[in-house]
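Extended Data, panel c. Modelled sequence:
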Amino acid sequence: MDLSPHTIAVIGLGYVGLPLAVEFGKLRPVVGFDINARRIADLQAGQDHTLETEPAELQAARHLSFTTDIEALRGCTRFIVTVPTPIDAHKRPDLTPLIKASETVGRVLKKGDIVIYESTVYPGATEEDCVPVLERVSGLKFNVDFFAGYSPERINPGDKAHRLPSIRKVTSGSTPEVADVVDALYAQIITAGTHKAASIRVAEAAKVIENTQRDVNIALINELALIFNRMGIDTEAVLQAAGTKWNFLPFRPGLVGGHCIGVDPYYLTHKAEAIGYHPEIILAGRRLNDSMGGYVVTQLVKAMTQRRIHVQGARVLVMGLAFKENCPDLRNTRVVDIVRELADYDVQADVFDPWVSPAEAQHEYGITPVAQPQPGAYDAIVIAVAHQQFKAMSAADIRALGKPEHVLFDLKYVLTAGESDLRL
């Protein structure tokens, strides 16, 4: 099947959209579209602030152009939507970016075009929420004049081993023929192969349970950590012992944030409740994982009090703000829970993270990270993210940042047992 005459438009050039546009742009004409003019200017200058794509990779995508101009999309026939799907303050799905992106595509949609969604949604969202927008704006009829597909993103920010081409891709289409076209399209760039799902709803459901499964598993380990802490047992030692069995899953306790694991389960539970089913296990796991920041601060304050370190007015260094190690991604980071909880105790928290943008941290959370922590200044230190820079530091290096009497809480097992005062 010859797909080369078709020009692809990638709508949304974040962590998901840009690598996709780059891979396709190595082979065929691609228009990368984003409403963020600063983002487009950076990409046109060969710079990606997400650090997912190297300048050399951008240069290698010789058929790729970047724009904020909707008119540049009119020559495209394949549209791939990769905008964020966040939750609102009440933890309900916020489809606003998806709807607006669908409106944008609808303005340039033509007969024979295919619109493929990659954004994580609940089962049914593509055909029930997005397609009606495409029909309304374009005046065209679904599965007669235009068609749809769904191929869930599987990008893992900061992971240089598992990248877009080497991660198997789930594909689907609104008709059997379109499913074949969508599958063949992605097969051009996915070296790991594709899996053609039976329907768009199946593909949507497959995506949303991937991260729900991880969320529930981490919640179990977090609960075990709470139990073992009360029993005076080192959780990591238990997990290492249990991990000697071949089928024990290697999850670790910690903060669960990011744009996927901490968000996607709410899309599934929202849909479940809409059809009259109240999820028990999924929501219980979400509640437990969302409570871990408060638990960390409670344990820290208790340890400080036991050492007669005055809590009110204390200074605490929080090492790391990104939602995971070795990436600048701040989306839904749960480290902010620790910072805010410490503020309730009238504790000054200095956040240090060499990966994140200070301007973005200030804009998103009102937090201005320190350029460099002050040696000997802190009553407590919390290692919240296992960045490579922190792993390169010895226990003595980290402790040198604290006052002579301080508490060191290692959330990520950066240090060995006995080198810190507290661990999850």
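The longest helix spans residues 200-231. This feature is highlighted in the accompanying rendering.
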